[in-house]
Amino acid sequence: MANLTINGKSFDVDVEPDTPLLWAIRENAGLTGTKYGCGIAQCGACTVHVDGVAMRSCGMLVSEAVGKKITTIEGLATNGALHKVQQAWIANDVPQCGYCQSGMIMAVAALLKDNPKPTDQDIDEAITNICRCGTFKQVREAIHAAANV
Amino acid sequence: MNHMPTLNRRAFVIGTAAVGTGLALGLDIPFGGPTVVRAADGSPEVNAWVVIQPNDTVVIRIARSEMGQGTLTGLAQLVAEELECDWSKVTTEYPTPGQSVARKRAWGDFSTGGSRGIRTSHEYVRKGGATARIMLIQAAANGWKVPASECTAANSIITHTPSGRTTTYGKVAEAAAKIEPPADVKLKDPKDWKLAGKGVKRLDTVDKTTGKMTYGIDVKLPGMLNAAIKACPVFGGKLKSYDEAKITGMKGVKKVVPVGDYAVAVVADTWWHAKTALDKLPIVWDEGENAKVSSASIAKWLEEGFDDSQPAFVGNENGDAKAAIAKAAKKVEAVYNYPYQNHATMEPMNATALYTADRCEVWCGTQNGEAAFAATLEASGLPADKCDVHKQMLGGGFGRRGQTDYVRQAVAIAKQMPGTPIKLLWSREEDMQHGNYHPVTQVKMTGAFDADNNLTALRMRISGQSILFSLRPEALVNGKDPATFAGLNATGEAAIGYSVPNLLIDHSMRNPHVPPGFWRGVNVNQNAVYLECFMDELAHSAGQDPLEFRRKLMSKNPKHLAVLNAVAEKIGWDKPAPQGVFRGLAQHMGYGSYVAGAAEISVTDGNKIKVHRIVAATDPGYAVNPAQIERQIAGSFVYGLSGLFYGGCTVKDGRIEQSNFDNYNSMRIAEMPKVESIVMPSGGFWGGVGEPTICVAGPAVLNAYFAATGKRIRSVPLRDQNITFA
Predict the structure, then answer these.
(1) Over the stretch B263-294, which tens digit does the pLDDT of each residue have?
(2) Number of CB pairs, chain A paired with chain B, less than 8 A apart
(3) Which of B39, B143, B537, B691 has the greatest number of beta carbons closer than 10 A?
(4) What is the ipTM of this complex?
(5) Which residues in chain B touch residue A102, judged by CB atoms under 8 angstroms apart?
(6) Where are the alpha helices (DSSP H) in B4-121?
(7) Do the chains contact at A138 and B213, CB–CB below 8 Å?
(8) What is the pTM of this model?
(9) Contact B668 A128 (CB under 8 A)
């Protein structure tokens, strides 16, 4: 049993300490917006914020997340208002299948917090999520749009 | 030596099950009638395609599957265009395959592949919208006791023109649903479209940005358990035994079950528990003869297919290519090859099944609801009226989710635990090693010139695997797989763009045991590399500009030529490229659309490629949503170039060696070129948009690589040539 703080709420999750955070979020907390893509921290579909830092939750253990502030895609909006990255995603019609987009949005939201006006090169270095549909053109445009809000 | 896949027999059984249960009934699409059919919320169906709620919400039924390609929005645009409804009030829903079968296939074909989503259903969905509009207008006219001819409809509002009276679709829907539908309707000329043809936003975006969208992997049912599975790593191998005692008592584990004769699954409270236990389960496989097969043994077998004495199916022939080559002033030869590729959808295969003695239901992402339904019937042993499939959003399809192996597995597991919903999820490793792979082929290309450097003959001997042989043997024509010749045919929706006086394109079919599948673009991918890179070789050999060389051979194919000219003009082919930048061209035809691409790249250290820019043109006949077409073009290049650079699956000891994205990489944003799309619909035909453009990126980049380095790359993926993205 471990206690996790996800999106400001407390969750008692009945898992072994070495369970990847991803599966505690999806299966125990029931928040399925965070996706499984590879399980080896390659694709980024499972990206969440841990104490404000973008982390690939499949590569982080529950024991490492205890006591930290975890934010998932479901918790990105504040007081019912979508985050500016989500708004830019909608305005630019970014998602295709959409499966990678939770992780993509979380990675971008963390980037913009640290670097409010990223250059293309900053984006290339920071955003390494895989998108098999190939939305990168719209992702880049939407990042710049969100940065200019 | 051809491997006869067990899937052949399974496909036959599906067909049999379908016939026995009504799936194979002829298409009988109803457009409404006197009996009101109600949607789940009680709102009336004006017809099968259109439900209108009292608050004027318009629910448009979509039979094809949305997997990112935008078909859901495009089909809704076509219905709404004819319906004349308020687009801001449109929502969509999927009818289930079970409902469709019960209503004599009211929604037609559910299959979503081959870039057919719109091009093979546009007519009947538009008729669905037009018929509903006429019925709504008639209902309003009846209410006002005026002739329907005095009424018009726009934006979900019906107006009686002489009196100025108005009403809304929501107010007359109930009455409209009782009206006899018109026998025939006239569809709008596409040049009069107001909504179709516009790059309106997708209808499914918001939930994809908030985590609310439900994919198959997200399905939750009361009392549901989770299953992890391992199939014999050697295709065709069997499950011999497993030592259940070794994992009994592990946390959360409920049951260990065989799945068919080739796999074993662990069922647990959570998937993580199921997977953890499965990884510890000792399993003994009977790997069989296929365990001796390797990439090298397959390659050798395919090379033997180049021998003229080997039997081959002729795909396209005119003149006498062999004779012309024999008397050529100059002969050019080259051998190319193209590998196995996994689809690697972002969402691994999964399905949830609930089986009881008298009912079986499945929840999954599928590109073909009816195929998933037939698989459910066969795996459950239950008839059509006791089964259904509930389609979820697909986390990528690319052809992989047209197959139903994962549905059968889920039902097979659920059948061993009646009354308990079972969600089966494949690990990424399982997904990577049990795909339906882009088939492996090689080609021997031969070109012949006369003394004046005119191309007198072209010969292509393709050697390798057929997809239809494995997956749709009923589609073979006297043993020949016509799909092998995509983009190389004399005529039709995938015709070659060149006229060569003596031409022979044939296929020595060789089917290794690795299961092939339809991989976005399918056979145009390798055929465009083979033909378009070799055209570049021929142009170079003749000392001619690659664009001019092609143009001379394309005068009889003006639509092919038009897209090629469009990209050449936009990239500035007649002007020098920027310093250090080199260009390549390609054109092709597939899925009824004409496509061309021009790439600009630079190369450092001879092996690091930066793709700066790709200009792409497509003529799909009609463009229902140009904004989504542009996204399909740019997206197809990510999928295609990922395949070109990284995407090879190699075979060792009968199994696929790659296991995850660390050894089967995919492009990232840093590697994405600038893509400039030219959507140039010329009208008069309906081509696809999801796939065709994918095939021009590869050869355009490879031809640019030659321009930059003087070296030809004739083997894919570039990873294995030690060539990477810069």
Answers:
(1) 999 999 999 999 999 999 999 999 999 999 99
(2) 177
(3) B691
(4) 0.99
(5) 211
(6) 6-21, 71-83, 97-102
(7) no
(8) 0.96
(9) yes
